[in-house]
Amino acid sequence: MTTVTRAELHDLPEILQLQYLAYQSEAALFGSRDIPPLKQTLGELTEEYRRGVILKMTDDAGTVIGSVRAREADGTVYIGKLMVHPAHQHRGYGTQLLHAIEDCFPDKRYELFTSTRSAANIRLYQRLGYRIFRTQAVNDELEFVYLEKP
Fold this sequence. Notes:
Helix content: 25-40%
Radius of gyration: 15 Å
Strand order of the largest sheet: 1-2-3-4-5-7-6
Shape: globular
CATH class: Alpha Beta
Mean pLDDT: 94
CATH architecture: 3-Layer(aba) Sandwich
Distance between the termini: 31 Å
Number of helices: 6
């Protein structure tokens, strides 16, 4: 059984290690480990923790197997870093985490983004009611798709 709760400050190193593992598949889509989630520092994550909400999903042993974070600004909740340990994917945990972070900010507009190469992520978000409203080229290799759920 899994549990979703708010992360505590002491959880951040474990969440960052999960992030480094979970974003390997995203890096593989680009053939480069030079992506922001793989370069984030504990200090940067701690700042995100102070500015918003970070949730963790733990297994029966208390190990963090998933996480998501969000912050609110001007009536919009910006959701980011939705991740599930590769050994625990395809069990609905991403959906559970996304619903849990939305529940932290009821009756708001939600926004998130992912790479246009992340087709599975885009399908998941659209299945959960998000719709594409913008794409943005970052460089010749990277384009982001922005999705919202009013």
